[in-house]
Amino acid sequence: MRKYQKKQLDLLKSYVDREQEQTDLKISRQGKLRLQKWYVPLSDKEKKKITRELVQTVLARKPKMCSFLEWRDLKIVYKRYASLYFCCAIEDQDNELITLEIIHRYVELLDKYFGSVCELDIIFNFEKAYFILDEFLLGGEVQETSKKNVLKAIEQADLLQEAQVMIYDDILEDTYMETYESYCE
Amino acid sequence: MSDVVERTLSALPGLLGQHDPGAGPGGAGGPGRVSASSRLGSLIRSITALTSKHRLMKECMVRLIYCEMLGYESSFGYIHAIKLAQQGNLLEKRVGYLAVSLFLHENHELLLLLVNTVVKDLQSTNLVEVCMALTVVSQIFPREMIPAVLPLIEDKLQHSKEIIRRKAVQALYKFYVIAPNQVQHIHDKFRKALCDRDAGVMAASLHIYLQMIKENSSGYKDLTGSFVTILKQVVGGKLSADFNYHSVPAPWLQIQLLRILGLLGKDDPRTSEVMYDVLDESLRRAEINHNITYAILFECVQTIYTIYPKSELLEKAAKCIGKFVLSPKINLKYLGLKALTYVIQQDPNLALQHQMTIIECLDHPDPIIKRETLELLYRITNGQNVVVIVQKMLDYLKESKEEYTIISLVGKTMNAVFSVGGDVVHSDIPNNFLRLLAEGFDDGKEDHQLRMYAVQSYLALLEEEDKLYPQKFLQVMSWVLGEYFSLVTDVDPEVILTKLHSLLRKTFVTSETKAWIMAAVTKIASHTSCSKTVEELIQELSSSLDTCLRQYAFELKQLCEDKALMKSLLPFDASCSDLVVDASLSFLDGFVAEGLDHGAAPYKPHHQRQEEKLSQEKALNFEPYGLSFASSVSSSGVTGRQSPTGLSFASDTSGNSVETGHKETNTLKLEGVRKLWGKEGYLPKKENKTEKGNEPQAVPCGSLLAEQVGEPPALQPDQGASLSEEDKEKQQLASTLFIGLGSSAGVSLMGKTDTATQKFKRKSKINETQQLSEEASDFQNSAASDFGPLLDTVPVNMEDSEGSTHRRLRKASPCSSDIVEDNLAFETSQSLRKSVLDERLSANRLSQPSLFADSNIEIFQPSPSAQSESASETPLVPSLPEELEGLPHSEGVGLCQSDALALHLCKVWTDDSLLLVVFVSNKTTSALGAVNLVFEESEHFQILESATSQFPVIEAQSVEHCQKCVRMNKVCTQAILSGSVSYQSEMETRLEFSVTLSLMDFIRPMEMTTEDFGKLWLSLSNDVKQNIKMSPCQDSLSAALDTLQQKLKLHRVDIIDTLISITAYTIWKVLPPDDGTVCSLCQPKGEGTAMSGDRDESGG
Predict the structure, then answer these.
(1) Domain AP complex mu/sigma subunit spans what residues (chain A) (predicted)?
(2) Quick one: closest CA in B to A156, which residue?
(3) pLDDT over 70 percentage in chain B
């Protein structure tokens, strides 16, 4: 499974802002990125262009349509979970269905880690989401398919981390609260 | 640093307004509501100021990652990310590494600063630190620094923790991908990783192997067995339950292994042999209705079609594809189409089975499905369906907006049209295509890409030497190359010139195409400095016999001498700029005036001259007036780029394509109209017959294939009415699309009939056999009527029994199995025909008379003439009794004769014995009495029943016969059976005769299935060991050989010194007494050596 390796981008989550949808139809079509990971070197400009195009195409898809897309010389596999779209770009000879299951497994991992994951979890702990992704996929290939092992590795690292967090003052927590409030507004 | 900050800020005017508040970069300790730009500003300030306080830096870094993701410039923070990874504690290091892996790419210069940190962390005793370092290495690492960390990572392969080993292997994989030669020396370590006790490490090593096998599959054939074993274990559920995904054992691992096996087994029967079992197993196990099992199935199917084929597996795989295609789930349908596209070249029948589904997919609302279907159709494009398929592609083109799709599709479409349709297409099409290329779309960039694509694909096509392309396609190619060669920068124009030059030399290129090529050469030459190829070309063509080419060559030569003129004459990409043509030729006024001054006659137009001439001569003009005009027009036309020959030829050849194109509308009118006149004139009767025969055959097939078969409406009014209009349209479409996929014999026929173009394999097979038999019978007919003398050797008896359509064909020689097969096919097709006729009769009474006429032609044969002819040669030629005539037999051979009596013999090869039929004919005018026929005893043959037969009396001028059943007692290649006949006329007379019987007379083809043969092969091949006990007293060679001969049923041929050669029988059943048990002994050589070994032992 060479997918992520050679080709552009892997996980890109786009998000339809529901509130904006009611006010302005044009903006509603602009998805917000929550997480992205690239496994091939590309310039920022290219990345931006690809992201924009992909978000547009994926959001334009109707619910009953095929989860696979042909885009340039790549295949895009996407799946929608609640308000989030998960997309992967793979090469033509890769297996689309197993990619769909990779997405599903990642969501399962997130769900297990956060305990019924929601979008806010990912927004406020997106570095955690990245850590999980790195344990699951490495360099564009599936690294560890066992759910138990991935979470064990994450928890090990977290334990060390938490032990140190205790020492620090709670400035961090304040800033979290701050941003959370401003989000609610 | 401050300039960076300023640049960043100025790059972000007002962008933060629409910034998601959730990600709002609140400055550290800053107030809750500040303007957006100052928020980012404070973030930047805190990042630059807080270099010493890492704990806050970590938080800032997380925010920076978020900013980066939202598209803001954050390069100012990259260095801090590296610093964080370097200096921070565990917690900060983790974020630092994450930030680095997200911000930087592997060629970034800052990455060099990270190498030291990575090396330090790899040596750390803390497990988490090592893990982090390995993770970052497997994601991004500068290629040139690999040697610095490689030994450390190699050490980690022996680490006690599974996770470390796994990540180390993953890092090595990364190294292999970016710099394969750097890890050349540690290939044995990969093998060790493959054999790791932990499945996770093994799975990681598969990434490396997949990559290596992709590049060079032959080097890893020895590992096939291991991969198969691993897959067997995985499929069998031997892995721990941790790896299960929705109760399917390690699906990712399975797919990885299947892919590797596919690469290994490609075109390699021996390697493929090893994996058949496990593939079968995987197919069987994957039965739960879940996406993941479908993913495995899909991979299995792909592997099965990639490796050396095995019919049993292919059948199962085809069934799987059917499941995919027919699935209501759209994702599976897509995969089904993808699989079909993959296998279509190997097995076009699969597409035929699913043609209705494919047609439905063509109109699917999801453009992705539509596109995949078009891709599938593109693969099956042939001369007959190209028009329809291209039409579909064009429809899709009109709808789609995406530039990439358009480019690839236009290229494909045109290539399909030209390479397949070729000379058939109307000359407008290439012209339109070229105009499209030249004028382009609204978007300049798209044009550019399309042109690039065209040039590149044509160059690739020209790479293939000695391939015949249609003239039109060559013309288009040369125009495109001449016009847009400079767009492709990586190809030297010299290379293109050489290619064009070699094209010019080819004999199949017409002079018109050569003119196009020359124009292209001229264009290319104008943009390059004078090249050797051009000079060579000029040299060569200046003496060409073709005036047109010579003209071009001289023009080119002149232009080459004056580069400036050439440039101005042939500007780049000016193909669609309008040229102003001075029609009045005003620039010649001076020249004309000068001429007039010198006393030249004023110019008179052609027609004026003609009139004058006429009025002057006042004579009869036999020339038609129009001719001279026409010639003048064409002569001026030749100089243009488009020569008029193209038009004439298109009008002639386009007839065909138009016919197919309008098929849908024409169908009803053409129905039932007999096609008497074709392109070649009056269509021969035979074709007409087969056509009629084929139409009603759709009836029995149709019932088998349920509603998938569309019947021609006129023939099946009741069924046709029940089908909705839409269905009919679809079926029409299907028939036009899938035409030409069946057997070629069927195609040529069906292509002409305009009806019943459903092409199912089964049906076309029937067509084939029928046509074959038709031909065979025609041949026989003609043989019977035209070549009288041939009858002696090939006695063909056409007989009509009770006026029915039943007919038999007798064969003279059993030696040629082909003929026997033909005969068989003929018989079956006859019975088919009969049923068809019945159907036909009930279906359509009107055509009854003509049908009978048809069958009359075939059925009533001039058999009497054949008989009379042979009778005239020998008056008393015996004919076989009725019940034996159906069997293969030899012609009658005279055995002996006297004045009164003649003996003829006929061999009849029955299934279980040889039947000798002896005809005793009385030549005299009086009756012969007491005729006694005796066969002598022979050691080789056994005559069943009695060896004698007696005829009490034979009437005058009549023939009696007797039959003797002969079997072979002792195998020999040839032996003589002799006998005598005695009779009483005026005195007792005795005649001796002898018959030579060869082994061939006693051998019958053995019918067995391939499986039976396989079993027999095994049981009788050399692999079977048999212990033969030899008593010590049997020490003489002959005694030993006798034993062997008995036990092994070997036949001794000859003994020359120590070398023993033994006969080998082929797979023919030898008639009793061996009773068919003696079969093949192949490789007599091997046997021979083994035998001699035995002999030595027994002798010593």
Answers:
(1) 27-160
(2) B128
(3) 53
Buried b (16+ CB within 10 A) or exposed e, B319-328: ebbbebbeee
CA distance A69 to chain B (A): 6
Question: What is the rounded CA–CA span in Å between residue A14 and residue A12?
Answer: 6
A171–B contact, CB cutoff 8 A: yes
> Distance (Å, rounded) from C-alpha B604 to C-alpha B593?
15
* Pick from A27, A32, A97: CB nearest B20: A32
- CATH T-level assignment (fold) for domain A1-145: Beta-Lactamase (3.30.450)
Q: How many CB atoms lie within 10 A of CB B666?
A: 13
pLDDT at position B570 is: 66
Residues of A in contact with B369 (CB under 8 A): 66
Token couple for B991: 């005649």
- The minimum CA-CA distance between A24 and chain B, rounded to whole Å, is 13
Mean pLDDT of chain A: 69
- What local confidence, expressed as pLDDT, does residue B1068 receive? 41
Cβ separation B252–A130 shorter than 8 A: no
Q: Of all helices (H) and strands (E), which one includes residue B960?
A: strand B959-968
Question: How far, in Å, CA of B358 to CA of B325, rounded?
Answer: 9
Mutate to test the interface with B, among A97, A164, A170 (most CBs of B within 10 A): A97
- C-alpha separations of B234 from B231, B255, B258, B890 in Å: 5, 11, 11, 64
Question: Which candidate from A97, A143, A149 shows the least CB-CB separation from B298?
Answer: A97
Pair of tokens at residue B308: 């050396």
Chain A residues in contact with B23 (beta carbon < 8 A): 123, 179
The average pLDDT across A23-28 equals 27
Task: Report which residue type is found at B804.
Answer: S
Contact A36, A11 (CB under 8 A): yes
The distance of A6 to chain B (nearest Cα, Å) reads 10
Q: What distance lies between CA B857 and its chain's CA centroid?
A: 41
Q: Which of A126, A138, A148 sits opposite B138 (nearest CB)?
A: A138
The pLDDT-based confidence of B249 (bands split at 50, 70, 90) is confident
* B546 pLDDT tier (thresholds 50, 70, 90): confident
Residue among B56, B250, B256 minimizing CB distance to A1? B256
Which CATH code of 3.30.479.20, 2.60.40.10, 3.40.190.170, 3.90.1150.10 fits the domain covering B893-999? 2.60.40.10
Take residue B690 and report the two structure tokens written for it: 């087969």
Interface contact flag, B98 A127, Cβ < 8 Å:
yes
Report pTM.
Answer: 0.52
Contact B204 A181 (CB under 8 A): no
CB proximity B163 to A under 8 Å: yes
Split at pLDDT 50, 70, 90, the class of B76 is: confident
For chain B, domain boundaries: 217-287, 424-569, 893-999, 1003-1070
Structure tokens at B600: 């030249």
Number of H helices, E strands in chain B: 46, 17
| Spatial distance between the Cα atoms of B867 and B879, rounded to a whole number of angstroms | 10
CA separation for the pair B904, B919 (Å, rounded): 5
- For chain B positions 14-53, those within 8 Å of chain A (CB to CB) are 18, 20-24, 26, 28-29, 32-33
ipTM: 0.78
Q: Is the pLDDT of residue A55 over 70?
A: yes
CB atoms within 10 A of CB B24: 21
What pLDDT is attached to residue B691? 39
What is the structure's pLDDT at A129?
86
Residues 6+ apart with CB under 8 A from B716: B699, B843
Q: How many CB pairs under 8 A join A and B?
A: 181
Taking the mean position of all CA atoms in its chain, how far away is CA A99?
14
Mean of pLDDT values over B754-773: 40
